[in-house]
Design a protein that fits this description.
Shape: rod-shaped
Number of domains: 2
Radius of gyration: 29 Å
Helix content: 40-55%
Number of strands: 5
Number of helices: 2
Strand content: 15-25%
Order of helices and strands: EEEEEHH
C-alpha cells in the first residue's frame, strides 16, 4: 500500500495500491477500483466512507452487545437453576436430605462448569 487519503468533501477514502498509470475503472456499490493497462489494481476508492464506517462500527458493537446478552442469558439460566436447587434444599433440609441435595448441587456446578466466588 502506497498511501491512504480521505476526502472530507467527497466523503471518500482513496487507497493507492501502486504508482502505475490508471487505464480504466470498475465500480461496484460504494467501491471503485482503478486498474492499469495490465489489469493490476492501482487505486481503490470507497465512496460514502463515513456511512460505511458507521455500519462497520454497528456490526462490531452489535456483535459485542449480542455476546454480552448471550452471556447474560446463560448466567440467568444458571442462576435460575441454582435458585431451584436452593429452594429444593430449603424444602429437603427439614426432611433430612441435605447431603443428597448438596451432592446434586455440586454435580450440577461441576457439570455446568460454574464456579462460585
Amino acid at each position: 500500500m502506497k498511501s491512504i487519503k480521505y476526502s472530507k468533501d467527497a466523503d471518500a477514502a482513496l487507497i493507492e495500491l501502486s504508482h502505475a498509470a490508471i487505464d480504466h475503472a470498475k465500480e461496484s456499490g460504494p467501491f471503485i477500483i482503478h486498474f492499469s493497462k495490465n489489469r493490476t489494481p492501482v487505486l481503490l476508492e470507497i465512496l460514502n466512507f463515513s456511512e460505511i464506517l458507521e455500519q462497520l462500527e454497528l456490526a462490531v458493537y452489535g456483535k459485542s452487545i449480542a455476546k454480552v446478552l448471550e452471556i447474560n442469558e446463560q448466567r440467568i439460566r444458571e442462576l435460575a437453576a441454582l435458585n431451584k436447587l436452593f429452594q429444593q434444599y430449603l424444602e429437603e433440609r427439614f426432611t433430612g436430605q441435605v447431603g443428597k441435595l448438596f451432592g446434586e448441587i455440586s454435580e450440577y456446578l461441576a457439570r455446568e462448569q460454574i464456579r462460585l466466588h
